[in-house]
Task: inverse folding
């Protein structure tokens, strides 16, 4: 008589992600992992660590820094990378601006669009043929169109109408000369799954993910942290509120939510009750332009 062991929901997601990570390392020559210090990339790097334990993670992590990041997140990024013992490669938008290879559009505060050319330059410089990303299908409709193995052409561009089938979770890692892949091991995870995993595995995160008193101002129905990168408009008064961040990106377009959630369990309760996705609730660029993410991905964004 045989006994079948059924994995828990989180264990099944973990096993799938670990399998994908190992598959990519077996099929490619120069992989890397996009790591910003945000919750999804923390989970992704933890999974990479599990995939090769007790050996070290056999590839570097990559951060495309806009220069408008929250200081707390950069501090956490550096500490976590040192703890894991992996090499950190930083592609810097400020350095590209200073060198004259990029120009900042007049009147445009957000540098999200400037990440793409710096990312493509970093890929070329370090000859990455695959980059792991922490994107999930539940985040945003453009990301819901992505395959797990998302092939990009020699210009780094993505064609949503020309993607490889992945029937029965079979992945094709073959690449044409000059092409590369973005790989998304967390594709089938949800925000709730991420937080349940963080709570279950007791993973550390930047403190911005938990409720804290912060100087904020309101713009277009969103709360923004008072910061040097985002000039205030007339009538936008600073006030102290207890907030947390559901997603962490460029400080000029990432909003906070009012919250009393100071533990992982509190955050889980909030997410269960929420009717908005994290990007829909707190990312100004997605609100302004519904196709912003897909447009950036077509150009080479992850």
Result:
């Amino acid at each position: 008589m045989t006994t079948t062991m059924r994995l828990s929901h989180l264990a099944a997601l973990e096993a799938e992600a670990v399998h994908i990570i190992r598959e990519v390392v077996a099929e490619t020559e120069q992989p890397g992992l996009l790591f910003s210090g945000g919750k999804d990339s923390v989970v992704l790097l933890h999974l990479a660590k599990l995939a090769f334990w007790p050996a070290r993670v056999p590839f570097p992590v990559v951060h495309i820094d806009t220069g408008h990041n929250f200081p707390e997140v950069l501090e956490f990024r550096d500490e976590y990378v040192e703890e894991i013992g992996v090499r950190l490669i930083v592609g810097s938008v400020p350095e590209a601006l200073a060198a004259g290879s990029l120009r900042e559009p007049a009147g445009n505060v957000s540098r999200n669009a400037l990440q793409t050319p710096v990312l493509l330059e970093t890929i070329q410089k370090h000859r990455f043929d695959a980059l792991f990303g922490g994107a999930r299908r539940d985040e945003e409709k453009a990301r819901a169109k992505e395959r797990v193995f998302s092939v990009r052409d020699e210009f780094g561009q993505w064609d949503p109408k020309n993607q490889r089938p992945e029937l029965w979770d079979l992945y094709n890692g073959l690449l044409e000369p000059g092409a590369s892949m973005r790989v998304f091991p967390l594709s089938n995870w949800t925000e709730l799954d991420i937080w349940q995993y963080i709570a279950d595995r007791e993973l550390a995160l930047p403190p911005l993910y938990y409720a804290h008193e912060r100087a904020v101002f309101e713009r277009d129905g969103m709360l923004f942290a008072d910061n040097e990168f985002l000039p205030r408009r007339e009538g936008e008064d600073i006030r102290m509120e207890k907030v947390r961040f559901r997603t962490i990106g460029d400080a000029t377009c990432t909003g906070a939510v009012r919250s009393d959630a100071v533990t992982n369990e509190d955050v889980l309760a909030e997410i269960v009750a929420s009717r908005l996705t994290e990007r829909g609730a707190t990312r100004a660029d997605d609100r302004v332009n519904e196709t912003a993410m897909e447009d950036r991905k077509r150009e080479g964004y992850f």
